[in-house]
């Protein structure tokens, strides 16, 4: 087996679908969908909502050789998904990687492990999702890796070209063919939710609107 595998860059999600996704909230989709959500340990470092096309890599614990190479292949609109293969000690992403990803036009980075250089990430104003901070960084050890293959991050299998939605509540991965429908459903649900909140603010009972009160009263016997 070769030390590195670098497959072709995936087709990108259309700008129209990305625009719709960025109006949707992951927590709204979480009202009806139970799969595609990364573990809640993967959290955003900045308060943002972004969507884009998944570009995937796998890199082993202390090594970031392929990550540095991949940064030169990113396109505007991509979100780089980094499978750390179980490593939770070494931070592969810091200030330098952030600058390179932003310069390439990437929308965000998602790392299944820790990052470092939080001040530089904040200064770059680049959206990142990861498992917190670590001071021990990776090196260019040339241990190998895979790019644009199926990966596992936060308990979710991510395929190259998947649609990715990241916000303050977490990261959602969708097959490209499902992204538009889920985004439109979320947008409509959010609009109804705002209407309901306005009614409750004016005195309507939440339990009556949701049907919860009817269930409780029926269960009293």
Automatic annotation (TrEMBL):
Source taxon at top rank: Bacteria
SUPFAM superfamilies assigned to the protein according to its UniProt record, in alphabetical order: RraA-like
One Pfam family linked to the record: RraA-like
Gene3D superfamilies linked: Ribonuclease E inhibitor RraA/RraA-like (3.50.30.40)
Cofactor(s), names only, from the UniProt record: a divalent metal cation
Record protein name field: Putative 4-hydroxy-4-methyl-2-oxoglutarate aldolase
């Amino acid at each position: 087996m070769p030390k590195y595998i670098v497959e072709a860059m995936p087709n990108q999600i259309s700008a129209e679908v990305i625009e719709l996704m960025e109006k949707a909230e992951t927590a709204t989709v979480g009202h009806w969908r139970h799969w595609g959500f990364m573990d809640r340990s993967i959290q955003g470092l900045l308060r943002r909502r972004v969507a884009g096309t998944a570009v995937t890599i796998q890199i082993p614990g202390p090594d970031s050789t392929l990550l540095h190479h991949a940064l030169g292949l990113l396109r505007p609109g991509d979100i780089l998904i980094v499978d750390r293969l179980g490593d939770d000690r070494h931070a592969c992403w810091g200030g330098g990687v952030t600058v390179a990803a932003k310069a390439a036009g990437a929308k965000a980075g998602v790392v299944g492990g820790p990052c470092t250089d939080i001040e530089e990430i904040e200064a770059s104003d680049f959206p990142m999702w990861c498992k917190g901070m670590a001071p021990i960084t990776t090196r260019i050890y040339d241990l190998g890796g895979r790019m644009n293959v199926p990966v596992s991050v936060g308990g979710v299998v991510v395929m190259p070209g998947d649609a990715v939605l990241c916000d303050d509540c977490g990261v959602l991965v969708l097959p490209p063919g499902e992204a538009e429908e889920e985004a439109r459903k979320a947008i409509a649900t959010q609009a109804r939710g705002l209407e309901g909140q306005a009614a409750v603010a004016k005195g309507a009972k939440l339990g009556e609107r949701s049907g919860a009160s009817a269930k409780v009263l029926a269960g009293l016997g």
